[in-house]
Amino acid sequence: MLKASGYTLLSVFIVNLLATSGDITLSWTSPIYIQLYSRDPSINPLGRPITDDEDGWLGSLLTIGAIVGPLPFSLIAEKFGRKIALLCIAVPHIISYIVMAFARNIYLFYFGRIFGGLALGGGYTLLPMYITEISEDHNRGMMSLSLNIFWALGNFLPYAIGPFMSIMWFNLVLACIPTAFFIIFLVIGSETPYYLLGANKIEQAETSLVKLRSLSNDVVQKELEFMKAHLKDDEDSHFSDILRKAELRKALVICVFLIVAQAMSGYCAITFYLQPIFEAAGTSLSSDISALIVGSTMFLSSFVAPVLVDRLGRKILTIFSCFGTFVSLVILGSFFYVQDFTILDSDPINWMPIFSLILYILTFNFGLGSIPWILSSELFPNSVKQIAASTVSSTFWITSFLLTRFFNDMNDVLGKAGSFWFFAIICLAAALFSIIYMPETKGKSFSEIQEMLRSGNKDFGKEEGLHPEKF
């Protein structure tokens, strides 16, 4: 196990509560749709079933908020620091859950979803950045992929408690998570040394690094000097460099392609509509139990990638993940093809939906679900990192919005089988792209990564190149 100081681990754990708050919003719709379609006013606070159009907006408005969210929170992070920006992200999460707890008309649910989306987009942009900036080179991958565990926990909670609680109490319970984060992080959270050095707050940066590493001032001086040298190299960088410099254009293309592949692999559509998918499949298990099983798999499998990422590397895990999701979606599409387009009896194979979705979640969590976000925080110098990360994040949420808003229309045109086969083709394309173009950043410092990109080294998987002294 790669070691990290106790305070760094504590800091990562605390900010990951915000990751959980964010991904709750993704699977929130799965149990809530069932209640909002009910005609029973004791279950449905609207007093009437929602329409198909309202169904689509409840899913897609979250992604509209997430498209906008990266920009304001990135500006706050740049001007006031990562800590203040993360605290600000918690506020719309809290407001969103409280508003939806007491909503009695559809527009308040719309408001809550947009507000939750703002925080979701900001979190996906800043959380990987914060964690990579407080971690050490040798454990940065493990620390970053801890996000995957808490993202998966956020996806799991609605499946675990949503079907068994009223909409009001469900949302009030969810509001406790970002509230707990805000209070704890406000009291003991640390600003990142990279931000403090960039703001020319040298003494505060040293204090922060001493706290994060649980070491004395003398011991952390070498790491501090290395950070200063890295930032000095980036002093003359500007946003225009992303378009002007070949290595940064390449980094942006890699990140955007992988993040679009992640969105178009169908993950948001599947998590939003997990229980309705099982109802359509007519599995022998009830839809809420099936969704709970898949959600449990999502959470438990998320512990695997953080253990492997700094051993096997980002590239191998991503390739394996893409091929695994491809196979699982082909299987799921085949089931719906037999059910919808043949006269064959699908009862003997009604185990296939839950099997394929468990396989999908397992392999998605190994790489495709989180590594593109890590790369967006690793491949760019500090001076352009925030605008690059915001661009990648907004691209993801624009793609997710289009996919979730028109998922039902997509099923009408292509059939459920065609939709899942379309997602499978995207995953296969992502696997081939990763084999050819994806860089390997395992164990490399930010300076080393930039030197690797500048040198045009095409063999990204090798451990060759610069090897500055480790701390």
Instruction: Give the full name of the CATH homologous superfamily.
Output: MFS general substrate transporter like domains
Distance between the termini: 17 Å
Overall pLDDT: 82
Q: Kindly estimate the percentage of residues that lie in beta strands according to DSSP.
A: under 5%
Q: Number of helix segments?
A: 23
Name the helix and strand elements from N-terminus to C-terminus, one letter apiece.
HHHHHHHHHHHHHHHHHHHHHHH
Protein name: Major facilitator superfamily (MFS) profile domain-containing protein
Membrane topology: Multi-pass membrane protein
Organism: Exocentrus adspersus
Family: Belongs to the major facilitator superfamily. Sugar transporter (TC 2.A.1.1) family. Trehalose transporter subfamily.
Q: Any overview of this molecule?
A:
This protein has 471 residues and is mainly alpha-helical. The chain has a single domain (6-455), classed as Up-down Bundle (Growth Hormone, Chain: A). Helices cover 77% and strands 0% of the residues. It has 23 helices and no strands. α6 (106-134) runs antiparallel to α7 (140-161) and α18 (314-341) packs antiparallel against α19 (352-366). The model is unreliable at 458-471 (pLDDT under 50).
